[in-house]
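User: Good morning. I'm curious how 2-(butylsulfanyl)adenosine would be positioned relative to this chain. Could you predict the structure with it bound?
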Amino acid sequence: MEDRKIKERIQWLTRELKRHNDNYYLYNQPEISDEQFDMLLRELSDLEILYPQFTLPDSPTQHVGSDLFTSAKIEFAPREQFDDVITTKFQQVRHRYPMTSLSNTYSEAEIADFHQRVCKLLGSETPEYVCELKFDGLAISLTYQEGKLLRAVTRGDGEKGDDVTNNVKTIQSVPLKLHGNYPEDFDIRGEIFMPRKAFDQLNQERIENEETPFANPRNAASGSMKMQDPTEVRKRRLDCFLYFLAGDDMPYDNHYDNLKAARSWGFQTSDYAVKRYTLEQLFEYIKLWEEKRYTLPFDIDGIVIKVNSYRQQELLGFTAKSPRWAIAFKFKAERIATELLSVDFQVGRTGVVTPVANLKPVFLAGTTVKRASLHNADIIQALDIHERDWVFVEKGGEIIPKITGVEISRRNPDAKPVSFITHCPACGTELVRAEGEAGFYCSNEFGCPPQMKGKIEHFIVRKMMNIESLGEGKIEILFDKNLVRNAADLYELRYEQLFGLEKVIENPDGKSKRISFREKTVENILNGIENSKSVPFERVLFALGIRYVGETVAKKLARHFKNINALIAASEEELKQADEVGDKIAVAIRNYFADERNLDIVQRLRNYGLRFEIEESATTRSDKLSGKTIVISGVFQHYNRDQYKAMIEQYGGKNAGSISKNTSFVLAGENMGPAKHEKAQELEIPLINEREFLEMIDGIEAQV
Ligand code: IVH
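Assistant: Good morning! Here's the predicted structure, ligand included:
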């Protein structure tokens, strides 16, 4: 290859790898599998060795991926994609011992190289290895002093990470207090993960609530750790295995015995760590877990081999990025070939058409796969899929399997390429492609049955109007009988219309279910509809189904505009004044209210008595803080910062971002920023702690 091409390739790889690092660590939405990532990284690393003159200073081969949001990244983060209230406001803390990652490989030959290197460097000494599972979650470093958990910090960029102590304290298997003969001051590291059962339940709930499900337990664990409200984190039922100790006065001179000791102090360590000596034994351990990994109640993505003796570890030392005394063997994403039977095109609530492949069932990574997403037209084209092709299906840790390639040698010469449809399969409208988007959609929003039904189904979900007595199947019946066309029609339903309705519904898995509207069913439905009239404004707003207006954005809009009239009247610029609202959301809101048909639905819902303004008592509870300008700083125990901000407003005060001579006082939590602390002292602004603040606004702590 000529130099120019190599330089360009290095630039491209550097850029792409950085983007994928951010997708993985920051947004918890990886686009490619770990294996694909590692292949790109290796290609870059090989090129950099041959052509060091083209290496870029910020090459990802020199740094570990970072889960820290920098201000630049916050700006570009697709905030509306996040259903969780994640925070970018954790205090950053420098690690006492840098958090390096491990060099990893997919090949047994490289494990043999590793063993050989270790033996060579140790000379006459024979290594003793500890083989462990490689847990698939996010790394955490815990500091214990005098037997108490002092701090929990994410890996971040390896040098400094986010202080997530309050979130970690909600994990039951992380001890807050140690027992036995523990060292005075040490760090212990491990992996926070979400057990598969908790993951399945969480995703099921998210699907019911129309939130985007997490792709895999790792993303779910990592997304949970970034939430700002520990009570929400607690609900995620995370777990933690500890696998590494660092400190000056460890009881033993080797990793294995210290891990055992850590267990006696109260830590959860893995039962599957074993001592091994020969290369054959290492291969056996790899093979064992490659086969048995799906019998575990949590995900692993490989195994880790560590030299046990600390003295030998020291002899072996570190490279720029990772220790020479350890290596990770990563399992390849399992891949299998199967026949493509047909492609369905599904129309969603917002009209987007998604192609789904029906496959000849195959067993893959612990489950039988019958369907796989084809994402969009570009992917179909890129894969060049033909009818009845043999395709490769892969599960790279994701729940929904992907088609990653085609076995062209098995293609029937007469096979026609699969083409994306041009018209809506449900209503026949010609499909359009929105600028800058990969998907085609049907624009017949008010006349296309799956879109109409989808909107009503969205409306009744628990987190919105909570009319759960009207499940999916029932909406279908009402729709087919022409009793409802939109959400407002629900409020005109009468007992006589519903009683006695019946239908047998065929599920995609072939099983059928009879749904009948008996007396009790009808009463429950009508009660559910009636009760929904007291659902607060923010949830009504969420239920309307405005594009990109999820739970969080709806809350922010409700708080900002206070009632629907103000929201309808708001210009794009005014909309953007609300927290979390950027161009894309503002345009979507404007488009929604520009359509008479939507305004008509809103007007009808209003007439039926739904809430279209924020409750007065929620805006101002009293004027105890009237005239006060308050700055919030640090981390709190009882409520999070957003909740304190809301309280300040509710009690008539004003929240400000920075300290000035006009500041009345600082509501100071733990780990208040040093700059703010200094400024407050300089201007003699009082610091009020959480308890004092709660007392000030009327014994709220009684409710804590
Ligand atoms: S040891 C200095 N042991 O895999 C050694 N890591 O790139 C520190 N991991 O960042 C790591 N299971 O998040 C170690 N049994 C295990 C592990 C493990 C999972 C993760 C960890 C680390 C990454 C390695």
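Residues 100-102, 132, 134-135, 139, 191, 243-244, 304, 323, 326, 328 surround 2-(butylsulfanyl)adenosine (CB under 6 Å). Confidence is low (pLDDT under 50) at residues 70-83, 700-704.
Let me know if you'd like a different ligand tried.
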